[in-house]
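Let us practice reading a record.
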Amino acid sequence: MCFDVLEHLLDPSQQLLQFYQALNSEGKMIVNWYFFKGFNQEFPFHLDDHKVVETFFHTLQSQFLEVFHPFCSQPGSYLAWVGRIAPEKGLEDGVAAAKIAGMPMKIFGLKQDVPYWEQICQEYPDAPIEYRGFLPTHELQQELGQCKALLITPRWIEAYPNVALEALACGVPLISYRRGGLTEIVQEGKTGFLVEPDSVQGLVEAIKHLDEIDRQACRQ
């Protein structure tokens, strides 16, 4: 079933739920919407009532987010690090923090700089890390959702890292350097912790407080 005209309906949230309930167990529903009347009001038939739109997205988040971003209320006792394995991403800080904290860490991403990766393995031979590869998005979400937290350790300014949003949608708290767009994404003490840039000890201290974070709040 292709549900392609949500913006034309008076109550798209209720219609979405009704159509979904009418599907059989093997049914599929494709949803498309466009809540925008245009810069010059050239699409007058499109709905842009902010309350209706807000309700619609709340319905998506509360009823259907699990399909795309699986939620795990009881995660495993291990951290995650996701990104290109290259010097500017600062993976070695995450590895060092995991070693000091005594908490295993799963690493996901493309080995863009193989000598850099090999150097980290040589410098931290006893670190509790496991390289999981460069996974398709749906597989990454499945594994990421079970992690205790995501460490984000960039050496440069990250404008708006998608992986941070992916993690939060899965209910995974963020521990990040206080750099770039991440300072606007992480809500201190609610969805994670911001630490002094390039401070391994700061990462370690934040790891100690992960049990204070409500994973459900990370998805809101």
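A brief commentary: Strands lie at 2-3, 30-31, 79-82, 105-108, 129-133, 150-152, 174-177, 192-195.
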